Amino acid sequence: MSAWLKDANLALLELRGPNATLRLVNDAASVRVVEGEESSSLDAPPLTVRARSPGIFLDRHPLHERAIALVAVDVRAGDPLGFLQIGSLLLAVPAPRAGTLTDVLVAHGAIVGYGTPLFALQPIEGDAS
C-alpha cells in the first residue's frame, strides 16, 4: 500500500470503520500511519446549489423584507434557500443537503439561467441526505 500511495502521488489515504480509523500519510519522504489526528482534508467538499430553471433570483419571498437564508447559518436538507420567479410563479430553491450556507453567489433580482450557481453550501459531515 505504501508503494501504491507513492506511485499514485496521494498525500493521504483514510480508511474508516465503526470502531477505528486508519490514516496513511505520504509526505514524499515516507508513508506513515497517523493515529489520533483529525483530518480536515476529508471534510465533505463544498456544494454549489444551481438554478433548476431560468428566472429571476429572489433571496426572499416578495412579501418579506429579509433574506430567508443567511450566510454562516446551518440549513437542513430541503430548507428553502431562495426563490426563482418565473412570471407570477415562485419556485423554491431547496438545500440539497444539510450544511452551512457559505455564500450567496447572485444578487437579489438578478436574471439567471438554467444551471447558474446560486449558493455555496458546506455539507455537514456525516449527513448524507
Description:
The strands form three sheets. A four-stranded antiparallel beta sheet has the order 4-11-9-6, with no helix packed on it. The protein has one helix spanning 2-8, and strands spanning 12-16, 21-26, 31-34, 47-50, 55-58, 74-75, 80-86, 89-94, 99-104, 111-112, 117-123. The protein is mostly beta strands. The protein starts with a helix and ends in a 6-residue tail after the last strand. The radius of gyration is 20 Å and the shape is elongated.
Features:
4-stranded antiparallel β-sheet, 129 residues, mainly beta
Most strands sheet: 4 strands, antiparallel
Tally of helical segments: 1
Give the amount of beta strand, in percent: 35-45%
| Sequence of secondary-structure elements | HEEEEEEEEEEE
Large-scale geometry: elongated
- Strands of the largest sheet, in order across it? 4-11-9-6
The overall strand count is 11
The low-confidence parts are 37-42
- What gap, in angstroms, lies between the N and C termini? 32 Å
Instruction: Kindly name the structural category.
Output: mainly beta
Mean pLDDT: 83
Helix percentage range: under 10%
The Rg value, from CA coordinates, equals 20 Å
Helix/strand layout:
Blueprint: H1 2-8, E1 12-16, E2 21-26, E3 31-34, E4 47-50, E5 55-58, E6 74-75, E7 80-86, E8 89-94, E9 99-104, E10 111-112, E11 117-123
Antiparallel strand pairs: 1-2, 2-3, 4-11, 5-7, 5-10, 6-9, 7-8, 9-11
